Amino acid sequence: MAAPPPRPPPPPALCHRLYGGSRRRRPHRPLPRRGRAPPPPAAAVLSFDHDTALVGADLSGRGDLGGAVFTKANATRSDLHGSDLRGANLEKAQFVDADLHGARLDGVLATQTKFNRANLRGVTLGGANLVGATLDGADVTGADFTDALLDVRVMLKLCERATGMNEVTGVGTRESLGCME
């Protein structure tokens, strides 16, 4: 039995599709992250996780909290106004009666987090994951929820009282939540 004849090389158009136009390997360049602060170096990540008591703590105006870990932290009545928490992990934390007005919370992971009666005036929450979070009684005047993941039930409750426009992004709270007119 004779071996089958060798296959001819693919036409140039097929090579272009298969190999992206060039066969040489390009160095990896990460894609730019829109609306998020670059991740901090590993040594600079602050950790307040696993039942850390931050009750009444004053962390206002801090710019070094981006990417910080607040998993299961108790930050009840804490002051975080004007702080930069972009990309932080707030999972299962408690921010009950906390002051977060004007804080940057873009891209945070805040699943099952309690923001009950929190001051969220002028907060930016672009791309935040708030699935399972509670915001009962929270003041969301001027907050920007653009591309945030929210439970439908929570979104409908927020739409009942959503007003104002975010001073940083210029987006209205009702518009960012997708509220019906």
TrEMBL record:
Residues 1-13 have a biased composition (Pro residues). Keywords: Repeat. It comes from the Eukaryota. Residues 22-36 have a biased composition (Basic residues). Residues 1-42 are annotated as: Disordered. This is Pentapeptide repeat-containing protein.
